[in-house]
Amino acid sequence: MISGTNAIGSKSSKQGNKTFKTFNPKENKETEWTFYEASSNEIDEAVALATDAFKVYKDFSGAKKAEFLEAIADEIEALGDELIETYCKESGLPDGRARGERGRTMGQLRAFANLLKEGSWVEAVIEKAQPNREPMPKSDIRKMLFPLGPVVVFGASNFPLAFSTAGGDTASALAAGCPVIVKSHPMHAATGELVSSAIIKAAEKTGMPNGVFSNLNSSGIEVGQQLVKHPKVKAVGFTGSINGGTALYKLANERDEPIPVFAEMGSINPVVLLPSALENDGEAWATKYASSITMGAGQFCTNPGLVLGLKGAKLDSFINTLSEEILKLEPTCMLHPNIYAKYNEGKKELSAQKGITVTADYKKATNPNTAQPSILKVSGADFLANTKLHKEVFGPFSVVVECENALEMESILNHLEGQLTGTVLGSEDDLENNSGVVDALQSRVGRILFNGVPTGVEVNSSMVHGGPFPASTDARFTSVGTSAIKRWVRPVSYQDWPNKLLPLALQNENPLKITRLVEGEYTKN
Amino acid sequence: MISGTNAIGSKSSKQGNKTFKTFNPKENKETEWTFYEASSNEIDEAVALATDAFKVYKDFSGAKKAEFLEAIADEIEALGDELIETYCKESGLPDGRARGERGRTMGQLRAFANLLKEGSWVEAVIEKAQPNREPMPKSDIRKMLFPLGPVVVFGASNFPLAFSTAGGDTASALAAGCPVIVKSHPMHAATGELVSSAIIKAAEKTGMPNGVFSNLNSSGIEVGQQLVKHPKVKAVGFTGSINGGTALYKLANERDEPIPVFAEMGSINPVVLLPSALENDGEAWATKYASSITMGAGQFCTNPGLVLGLKGAKLDSFINTLSEEILKLEPTCMLHPNIYAKYNEGKKELSAQKGITVTADYKKATNPNTAQPSILKVSGADFLANTKLHKEVFGPFSVVVECENALEMESILNHLEGQLTGTVLGSEDDLENNSGVVDALQSRVGRILFNGVPTGVEVNSSMVHGGPFPASTDARFTSVGTSAIKRWVRPVSYQDWPNKLLPLALQNENPLKITRLVEGEYTKN
């Protein structure tokens, strides 16, 4: 049963007058549910509760926070088919994707629980006293990471589960010891409410302080702005558009006390076809990329939106196959009429640019809000001269650039903005012979791939999902994988502190049995 | 021989028309040297050279960069007494301090060299492929840290060596693989020129690319602004005032591509006297703090500018001793007439606030630019009500707050801005009995000390010199100690990359023999 209310900790609340509805893009009509936009007072209540909760929650052991995260995963699973059906209704995405994303979401929560149980993520560093050092005695100094305080998370449109209410931002912030206030994504507020209820149930079952999690509804920008400006909010996680992310980033920097905003804002994920890829595997890569570009109606941050190859018959044949194959795939429904409209606008704008040839454009009749894939091609010179072509079109769409030579390819890469990913297709010899191109690509991205597709982001300890601006607002952190926890913490040093009163992670006896850097050596002793 | 020119890589340059002189505060007159302010063209040249140098320098091995850093230390030492004399002339600081700071500066360079030779600082993480994983095969993904690009460093007024031309910011950025452009501090441009010549000599001797280091003179704010706005500059290090640091931070955030600014902006470093400290050691602490407050004419970021104690006879006696002792110490020369004037202004302003009693104010005749120490006292209520009293007065000055009770103490700490350090004086029982106070203090600081003085910042792996805004612009990083290198890097993941073409730190065989996180385990294998 969807109530449409906000969750201020464990309290259900609907103080505001403004309401909104979510939309079923497949049926092209509003859903049956009505949501109450969070009022200014509700925002203050949620932040005050989170601030109180932080005082207790920050000191909970890793084991206790892990229990909470695991309980959230269990409670999400216990929502059963209602969650899957609600997800599909509000997103237009198919049942299989919903189940896959639910699995991933639970997997993320459990991965952070395991990280907490292992415990070494706090980066404990110990340097012991040397009272007889000359000319000055050396103090005992020990540092580790501590949570920042209440975190605001903005749910993403394109991952109603894995990057939303209990997604990677929430899971990593809760793992770090920070209470979370979610600004629920207005396109899937019912899905958000169900997941929120699971989190709150898990919090109650595992003895978490009230306010460790709140969920606020909003269809406009004001609720988000008020949250980011709130003096008691200490950090922000966001996944979405460059405009949205940049606006929040600027707002956070204008505060009396600026706070970090981790906005992951997508990119065009350049793919470089080196000679032997075209020579030996052009057709196969074209077929693989037709499917990567259209996967999930192209609604992925890592969707390959730019392909660079050396001009010639082999590239022609790659473009032909890519264009044919992409038209063979059944187009799928986008998340919302607004996203569908924006996709069509973007496609139209780019198709009309100087030097563009449209090599594929799906023309057959489709269901409502269904994205017709498209492939464009353009010369290297025209691409370089026109930064409109460097922008992301969110959907099943890609631009192939015909480069004159490797130098032009390198120059194009050097003129791109920051990217989440970059991919090189070819042989090992190609990599060695094109080090300039590979270097230029590496300098622009958070993740560089060899002979693969960028869609599909592994949740593990070695993933970087982020990249130079505007792929993300802070290239030094990742929003996917266990290192995402590092966004919500800061180090504190303890100098000459009595051993028994130190946090457990810093005590001489290493009671948590974690790996620490002691006098320059990594050790579990 | 001081030329007064800028160093654009290895080229000496004086294209601009504007000149300025440095000042000898002890003799209260200008020095004999004239400096050429960097022109807009010289700035562009330095950045272009640094950008070119980065292409080569970023790929140098840790061992090769370590050689460079060690050579810098050696060349600084080889400057001999000319450096010491120039330092003293431009800063008014005594010979012993100059020699101590030179030792510290060389020590920092060598500490980063050792970090590079050991090599594990790149945080290599490896997760191997699982081709048979269901439902999707797992890719091989490996990540490590890479340098950001050219870094601009602003020298600090109060550490002409250790936080300036070849100070911690420069040493850590060069260690990370980033070329450095120093905006030399106008109060000690000659000292800066000497150190710059040592760096450039070291670069030439160890085969570094031209442009790995440049030194620009400037007496105004325009050179710094142009540097921070330059699109090819990728990060900024700054130590100085809140106004200066915040202005650069805002400028960097307004760029098309925002870049990180690590500004360390000082603080008032609260000291909490818990009951048994007053009961048993009040006199001793008062004497120790008289000396900590006046050390280096109070010109330290970690100078204790605020002392909190519980009202009563014991605190009265502490204040009396502190006030007496501080007047017994010989006042010392400040860095510059501007700093001296600012100190007097700040002291005057705070002394005139409601409820303030001046308990010590040095009145005897002194040499020019010599800071007369002062101690104020005020009630907790008056302190809480007046945020002017919460601001730093840079000099030998401290405010003692008479708190009604522990709750008021806690409330005061909760109303302070972010601080570099916080100190608790007392017994272990005091710590346990005042957990609210200790918690409030810990939440505000980068370093928390027990029974010590905050002045004196150890350069090691466990130091946090930084803290919540406005102590620094990014509490997640430190500007002192080996972790300072983490400010100039970002992680990049390699997915399914051929082993032999991976950076050495990520190759299967671990040729660098560093500690890596492999499949969740820290290992040197």
Automatic annotation (TrEMBL), chains A, B:
**Locate the Aldehyde dehydrogenase domain: which residues?**
15-467
Q: Which InterPro entries match?
A: Ald_DH/histidinol_DH, Ald_DH_C, Ald_DH_N, Aldehyde_DH_dom, Aldehyde_DH_Superfamily, ALDH_KGSADH
Region (Disordered) location: 1-24
- The signal peptide here is none
Tell me the keywords, alphabetical order.
Oxidoreductase
Q: Which domain of life is it from?
A: Bacteria
A GO molecular function term, named singly, is:
oxidoreductase activity, acting on the aldehyde or oxo group of donors, NAD or NADP as acceptor
Bias class Polar residues marks the residues at 1-22
The name this protein carries in UniProt is NADP-dependent aldehyde dehydrogenase
